[in-house]
Amino acid sequence: MSDPLSEVVRLLRPRAVFANVISGKGNWAVRYSRFGQPSFCIMLEGDCLLAVDGHEPIALSAGDFVLLPATPAFTISSRVPAPPVHWDPKDVAGSVAELRYGEPDGHPDMRSLGGSFLFDAVDPGLLISLLPRVVHVQGSMRLSQLVRMVGEEVADQKPGCEFMLSRLVELLLVEAMRAASAGSAPPGLLRGLGDERLAPALKHMHARIGHAWSIEQLAKAAAMSRSAFFERFTRSVGVAPMEYLLAWRMDIAKGLLRDNQLTVSEIADQVGYASASAFSVAFSRHVGTTPGKYARSLSLSV
Fold this sequence. Notes:
The protein is an alpha+beta fold. The chain has helices at 4-12, 89-92, 125-130, 141-156, 161-180, 189-193, 198-207, 215-221, 226-237, 241-259, 264-270, 276-287, 291-301; strands at 14-25, 29-32, 39-45, 47-52, 58-61, 65-68, 74-77, 85-87, 99-102, 110-119, 135-137.
């Protein structure tokens, strides 16, 4: 059966990651302006405080992993903060030099690896819609190992580095989404997958995206009555089942249009429409433009 999380990662198409070793000593604080792109931090040694705008401050310690899907403005500091120094994250992204907070000399009290993701996706906002503003995972050896591998790839720049980084990013995202599906995710796919009743219906839906699903069929997969399934799905996923199915079909269609390997008629068939015209009408209503114009806009933006 199709795995929805794997489908999400394939649609996002992670292709690169920038990462910096970051260390701090003494009392310090750095204020970053809004970045807007997905970014991460893993604590390697020591501890610090992270205050993301609109979110309660959190204490980070060795082994913790943080993912900010949209990276709003935030402040990172030592446990006893100093007046903040203001940095622009765009000036930092892609730098290979180690960043140092606080006292410039001596063994650091804190070491971390921080960076950002790049996606080759039609709609990178898909990740933002799936995850909470702050994903904080504590004590995950798997994530620690993955991010250390990212750090090694960034530092060594060996042949095949770009391919390795893109694969590691995929693994990082899946681990972060698995953690979020445990209950901290906003209404959406991840919360639905964390519901033992809804998960089978979602997996059936994703496995046969072109099937003419009915509420009754999906409710049967969830072992629920039609009305109970509809209410529970809408509450957990944030939209009604057929609205979710339409949105996912359109996300798949946009990815296929970007690949430019299939005709509009073939794409229509894959995502469950009996004709190209019926698909074009649905696509235009959902996306705001025809499939042909959408595909041409993608080719012009390359």
